[in-house]
Design brief:
- A two-stranded antiparallel sheet has the order 1-2. A two-stranded antiparallel sheet has the order 3-4.
- Helix 2 runs antiparallel to helix 3.
- Helices cover about 60% and strands about 10% of the residues.
- The mean pLDDT is about 75.
- The chain is built from three helices and four strands, in the order ββββααα.
């Protein structure tokens, strides 16, 4: 028989180890297939707006701040980046909602 017919929705292939058409594999360590229909353009718009604001603030900081303050800004940004990376790794254990939030960051 067809082993794919025994798989849950969104999975197919030998031992249900592949995502079905119109599903994508998550980028975390766990193997999950999510529906492409669940993904929206809102995430893309959020990333574009956040990147624009971020680079705008960096440009203003470089233009307006003297070196001692600029060092503090760089330290803050590196710290935030580290927190985002730690959160992205930990979010795979916290569930779909947390994973989505850290995926946008």
């Amino acid at each position: 028989g067809n082993l794919t017919s025994l798989c849950q929705l969104g999975y197919e292939g030998r031992y249900c180890g592949e995502c079905a058409e119109a599903y994508y594999r998550t980028t975390t360590g766990s193997f999950e297939c999510w529906s492409c229909e669940d993904a929206s353009d809102a995430g893309l718009y959020f990333i574009i707006i956040a990147a624009t604001v971020f680079f705008g603030l960096i440009t203003l900081a470089v233009i307006l701040l003297d070196d001692s303050y600029l060092d503090n800004v760089v330290t803050l940004l590196v710290s935030v980046q580290q927190l985002v990376q730690i959160g992205a790794v930990a979010s795979s254990r916290l569930g779909h909602g947390a994973e989505e939030v850290f995926g946008y960051l």
